[in-house]
Amino acid sequence: MIDCHIHSIWSDGEDKLEDIVQNAIFKGLEVIGFSDHALSTEGREEHMGPEKVKDYLEKLNVLGGKYAGQIKILSGLEVDYSIGNRKEIEESLRNVNPDFVLAAIHKVRIADQNISLWDYKDMNAPDVVEKYFRNIYSAIETGIFDGIAHPDLINHAVDLPTSYFDQLVDLCKESGVAFEMNAAGLTRDVYDLTKERLVQKSRYPSKDLMRKLVEKGVNLTIGSDAHKIEYVGGNITPIIETLKEVGAENLCYIESRRKVKFQI
Ligand SMILES: [Zn+2]
Ligand SMILES: [Zn+2]
Asked: Taking a C-beta distance cutoff of 8 angstroms, is the pair 255, 4 a contact?
């Protein structure tokens, strides 16, 4: 099994890198990728700055050597992207050398307002939805990201038909940028606009969207988005089962900025 989206105490996760590695080996995972939040002042306070990123990557490098033969450990960064912070990110990435860099959109800026993807009501406005997607398209166009973390996270706030993702699917296909299957979506409550509250219902990753992605041959990565050790590897199996149902044969992981196929 494979899990390429894990957080540790280096950002907003609760556990140490080595404890997570040992737990992943115990659970039988073959490949894990850490993706701690980094390099963007747009994001949360616990994001790592460039200096801390160097220490984090060094630590992962040591662990990679120590556990070689038992598990493959990949070093990744989850970077909050918006059209306005491209230069800052490009600059910061020049001096670090992770296995992979994922762009993530957790907030949408409209005029002077930052709307979080957890501001459910505000997210349900056409201009906010449009800006969310424009940020992702822009992230792909920069050429600085290997993949997009949870591109369909917006579905937990807004009930969007799969057709909203058509352009994104095409852009991922053309660019080779990976679309992440974020397994945390299976357990995330979603906002019901008519009831104006959260309801217990999974809305992403949707089987319809998976089918489109697989038919187009988009590079797919997968991750639990675990912030606690007990969720490492969580919900990966049911997503892989659904991917197989729609015809997928491979996922990929990203090592030294290159995509490597992983048979499922
Ligand atoms: Zn995220
Ligand atoms: Zn994450």
From this structure: no
Angle, CA 216 vertex, CA 211 and CA 219 arms, to 5°:
90
The answer, as to whether pTM is greater than 0.90, is yes
CB 32 within 8 A of CB 74: yes
Buried/exposed code over 13-27 (b: 16+ C-beta within 10 A; e: otherwise): bebebeebbbbbeee
Distance 104 CA to ligand 2 centre (A): 8
b/e sequence 195-215, b meaning 16+ C-beta within 10 Å? eeeeeeebbbbbeebbbbbbe
Ligand 1 center from residue 7 Cα (angstroms):
10
C-alpha 155 – ligand 1 centre gap (Å): 13
Neighbours of 53 (CB within 10 A): 23
Q: For residue 224, what are the contacts with CB-CB under 8 A and spacing of at least 6?
A: 3, 5, 6, 183, 184, 231, 232, 233, 234, 235, 236
Q: Using the mean position of ligand 2's atoms as its centre, give its distance from the Cα of residue 36 in Å.
A: 7
Residue 42 has pLDDT above 70, yes or no: no
Give per-residue pLDDT as tens, 48-63: 988 999 999 999 999 9
Q: Does domain 2-263 have CATH number 1.10.3720.10?
A: no
Where are the domains positioned within the chain?
Answer: 2-263
Q: How far is the CA of 196 from the centre of ligand 1 (A)?
A: 24
